[in-house]
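Intended use. Records like the one below are meant for learning the mapping from a protein sequence to its folded structure. Do not use them to infer anything beyond what is encoded.
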Amino acid sequence: MLRIPHPPDLDGPVSKEADHVSNHNYPYQLIRQSDNQKKGFFRYAFHKDWDDPTLYDLCINPDKIGSERAAQLIMEMARSSELKSCSIYALDALERLSQKKRIEATLIEMDLRHSGLSVEMPEKGIAHITGVLYNHMDKGRIPTVVGRIPGVERVQVDVTLVPAGYD
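Structure written out for the chain above:
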């Protein structure tokens, strides 16, 4: 996966649909509004800043080098063996993130009495669950229920049990 930021060219040509709008700035306002919505979702969903350059593999300003050269650089980068080998790790990370979200959803459905349960996927297929539980029976249910999720091979439960009467 090649990640490249693509800032809109707000000084360049605007779509033909915009010609019908009496306010010439309206298309630019729509672009900015759309970008702000995407940035907000990105921050909410991934806890990352959309503008953080470390999230991208390549940053190009086509206004400085021209669109033809920008396209050439993108194609060269996409074909590089270094980037292809990184893609394998990215897919693994995405699989583990997806698995983590499935486990978190399952734990919510279990209606556990807990405080701050946390799920980590240190390796593919291995779930590590930590936090505080108020019911010792819940601790025994977690490996069984989470272990039924496709792709989960082993469940490690390292939770602190609060003695009855201290909740």
